[in-house]
Design goal:
two-stranded antiparallel sheet, Glutaredoxin, mainly alpha, 2 domains, 4 strands, 50% helix, 8 helices, two-stranded antiparallel ribbon
Amino acid sequence: MKKDFPIEETWVPFQLRPWTPPEGIPYTELFPGVMFKERYLGLNKSGEPFGCRFGERTFLSNSKPALEASEYARDKGKFDLFHEQVFHAYFTDVLDIGDTKILLKIAGEVGLDPEELKRCLNDGRYETRLEEGMKQAARYGISAVPTFIINEAHRIVGAPPLGSFKDQLSRIQD
């Protein structure tokens, strides 16, 4: 009989495309020929049982400001709440999470001090932490998001269907 095991999660800051300009980059440049309408229909069908809705993004934001703001939220004990709101802003509301004004608004909504966050972003307080996150990701061979590292040894890359994800976790637990 399998034992239940506690799951401890630690999000590590990882910028998938660090070369993204501050204003972002259109998806048509990144993924020429991709039929985005069909892709979003599939994503929304998969997300529907979980209450997830994906807006039709047309550009990739530069995620560095959002990653730095998330580290500020971590230091203030509000990482999970802030992180969830940033995901919602990006994937559902199709907002530019590279825009500091958007991040400051989210910060205020979750009970963080927008002015203090702005100072932290302006003085680069979390850049070293992001660099360390990128080094850690390199040690694990991470090149895609999401990537789940289990017990420092096993890796699940991407967002497989829930059944497949559970099967993979179960095999790791055996």
